[in-house]
Write a structure and sequence with these properties.
Elements (H helix, E strand, L loop, with lengths): L8 E4 L2 E4 L4 E3 L4 E3 L6 H5 L6 E4 L6 E3 L9 E4 L4 E4 L8 E3 L8 E4 L2 E6 L6 H8 L2 H10 L10 H4 L3 E3 L3 H50 L9 E6 L13 E5 L1 H4 L10 E4 L15 E4 L11 E3 L8 E2 L3 E6 L6 H14 L10
Parallel strand pairs: 14-18
Antiparallel strand pairs: 1-2, 3-12, 4-11, 5-6, 7-10, 8-9, 8-11, 13-19, 14-15, 16-17, 16-19
Helix pairs in contact: 5-7
Length: 347
Amino acid sequence: MSKATASGRAEQKGRTVTTKWPMVRLGEVLAERRDSPRDEDILSEETRIVDKISFDTGKITLRVDGGTRTKLILVQPGDLLVSGINAAKGAIAVYDESETKPIAATIHYGAYVPDKSRVDTNYLWWLLRSGFFRELLSSQVPGGIKTELKAKRLLPVRVPLPPLAEQRRIVARIENLAGQIEDVVALQQRTAFEAESLMVSRLDTLFRQFTRQYETTPLGDVLTEANYGTSEKCESTRSEGAIPVLRIPNVASERVSLESLKYAAWLAKNDRNLLLSPGDILVVRTNGSWDLVGRCAVVQWLPEPMAFASYLIRLRCDTSLVDPSYVQHLLRYLLSVTPTDPGRHRN
């Protein structure tokens, strides 16, 4: 088991981390807010309710309606809001101090008042959303990050606490770096968009030329199979007998990715035809994000038997007639020139 001490030493996963700053219990700089909103303020929507905190940005989204049957807590401007369930995934926010009204959150959240004489709220926000803090949780909290993070578990956790001036310098450096990263990401997105536009233009030229040179044939005539995947429930944790199931995130880039796999129990009732083979084409047929619908990827190689989820279509080509990669490019071209109305599926 890992330990943290007031001297600035912490042991994490078999390694000792030494900081030049004291390790302080969060309870020394945070106080749990125990207020509840008034029922009439919730019913009138004078006090709005938190819908979620973004894992990526740490920003709060509020519900459109005010109905709830769950007990609520009150969150005041300047409070640190922590999701007890998803804190380790980044669901930690600061409710903007410039706001003039409180908001409410379910009891699966915790609202905390920072002691501003000792801690900079933004320093805490960056710290608690870091991988370093996730390691501290894993080492210091019974049950680690798998246990709901209530105040009684969060506040005893020791974290490094520099002097206030140093905290602010650290925040300034982090925010400067974050800004640079955002600029790089924006540039990558623009470059990717331009590359995609160039690819679509090139495909348009090629396939228009092909239709003049060669006869066309229905796609179904060069396929041996076209079917939907398994609707078995998938889990992040692999149980005995379970196999990986490729989902939309695994093909959204139009290449098969084996990252963030989920698993489903492979029962005798499952059709072996749902297992993938090299050369199979997986097409996204439905999704809440419209720009993903119609994207496809060719299965090149798999390290073990894998299935595919029901919101994908698997196309299996007659390779004596057509190359799967050619079909993928053809589908990309058709998607660019014949978009389906939003809200509909591809089948």
